[in-house]
Amino acid sequence: MSVAGALRKWARGHTERSRYSPVGIAFHWVMALLVLFQLGWGYYSSWLPAGGDKLLAYQVHSAAGLPILLLALARFGWRLLIPGPINDADRQGWQTQAAYAIHYVFYIAFFGLPLSGWVMWSSIAEPGPLYLAGVVPWPQLPFDQLPLTTRWRIMDLAEDVHLVLVITLLVVIPLHVGAALKHHFWDRHDVLRGMLPEIPDAEDPRGEAKHKPREPRLPSETAPG
């Protein structure tokens, strides 16, 4: 059996129980934490006055942003190799289509934000070296031979793209979180449970094997006994 076949067989043991694989879960939560950090740190950095502190803050921002680009590539490849599970939320018609659309928007932001940040950093004059996670040297894009006015235009365009994608994330993240909570607490779907570290049923305080979708109650069940 090939390595890809062995991985699919291993992941199938999770997806057949309406769960994401541990690798998929790790991708989701690590990227979620990095994105939330970047949004907060980017806002903080924008308020710093020009100078050494602002440059250091942007270096931290880039050091945390470049891993998002690599993780997005790895996560996209993993999803092509190991499809996610079919869960209760995948059977909700327009809601499912909206969820898929939001996931595509997330991927556009995951690629677009670090790429536009890389372009911005490379287009200004000698801002300092880039480091992946603050450790591994990262090359700048070859803009140094371009005329200064062209570099400023590139920077302005990249900055506009960066801002639009940040605003987009500020819109879709609450939608994504709200939908997950609605599926979990109101519809009693298994989608959020499948993305959390697994709790053995013996330790689950609800004592249930899995969520059951909410169903309408019959009149006989609502009548006083």
UniProtKB/TrEMBL annotation:
Note the topology in the membrane: Multi-pass membrane protein
Q: Which residues form a coiled coil?
A: none
| Record's compositionally biased regions (Basic and acidic residues) | 203-218
Key word tRNA-binding present? no
Could you list this entry's UniProt keywords, alphabetically sorted: Cell membrane, Electron transport, Heme, Iron, Membrane, Metal-binding, Transmembrane, Transmembrane helix, Transport
Names of required cofactors: heme b
**Annotated Pfam families:** Ni_hydr_CYTB
Any one Gene Ontology MF annotation carried by this entry is: heme binding
Which residues belong to any copy of the Cytochrome b561 bacterial/Ni-hydrogenase domain? Answer: 19-197
Q: What are the BP-aspect GO terms?
A: respiratory electron transport chain
Gene Ontology CC annotation, any one: plasma membrane
Classify the source by domain of life. Answer: Bacteria
The signal peptide annotation in the UniProt record is none
Q: Which family does it belong to?
A: Belongs to the cytochrome b561 family.
Designated name of the protein: Cytochrome B
Upper lineage ranks?
A: Bacteria, Pseudomonadati, Pseudomonadota, Alphaproteobacteria, Sphingomonadales
